[in-house]
Amino acid sequence: MSGLWFASHALLWVLVVVEAILLIALMRQVGTLLLRVGTSTAFDAGGGPAIGAEAPWVPAEAFDADSGTDGRAAMLVFVSVGCGMCDVLAPGLNAIASAYAASSRVYAVGRETKDALESWARSKRVRVPVLSQPDAFDAYEVSGTPYAYVVDAAGVVQAGGGVNTTDQLEGLLRQCMSAENRSSERREIEVAVSELDGGDLR
C-alpha cells in the first residue's frame, strides 16, 4: 500500500512540473504574440521635451545642407547594447529608414562607446547611422530604451514615445507627415517589411 501511495505521490509531482513547463511556454508564446499584434501607438513614459519645443540635441549632420539631408526630419531612436527589445527592433530601423528616406533620416543613439555600438549594429545588421551620445539621453530625459523622438527640419520636436515595434516607429513618423504622402509611403513600408520577413537582410 505504501508503495502505491509513493508512486501516486511521485506521479503528481511529475504532473505539476510538466504543467509548470507548459505554462511557462504558453506565457512566452502569448508575449511573442502581443509583440507582433501590439498597439501601433508609441507609449509616453513622461518627461523629456514637449511636442512643439525646440529639440535639445540633434546630430550635427542631420540638417547640414552639404550632406543632402536638409528639409528632412530626424528620427532619433535611443537604444542600449544588451537591450532585448532594441535587438527585436533592429530590423525595423532599416525598414523605416528605407521606406521614409525621402522625408526623414533615422539615427540609433546609444550611451555606450562608439566601438560597442558599432559592434552591436554589425551583429544586428543595423544599417542606419549609430551615434554614441550619452549626453543626449540626459537632454531628452530618456530613462528606458528603446525610445524615439522625431525632430522636424526646423529643429522642433514633433513626436516622441516608447517604441517596441516597427509599427510604433512608423506611427511617430506618420504623426509628422502631410496627408498626401501617407498612402504612397505606407505601401513602401509594407514592401520593406515583407522583404525582411523573407529573411533578406543583405
Question: Could you explain how this protein is built, in words?
Answer:
With 202 residues, the chain is α/β, with parallel strands linked by helices. It folds into two domains: 1-37; 65-197, Glutaredoxin, CATH 3.40.30.10. Helices cover 48% and strands 14% of the residues. The protein contains six helices and five strands; from the N terminus they run H-E-H-E-H-E-H-E-E-H-H. The protein has helices at residues 2-37, 84-99, 114-123, 134-139, 166-174, 179-197; strands at 73-79, 104-110, 130-132, 147-151, 157-162. A five-stranded mixed beta sheet has the order 3-2-1-4-5. Helix 2 crosses helix 6. The radius of gyration is 22 Å and the shape is elongated. It starts with a helix and ends in a 5-residue tail after the last helix. 29% of the residues are buried. The model is unreliable at 33-38 and 179-184 (pLDDT under 50).
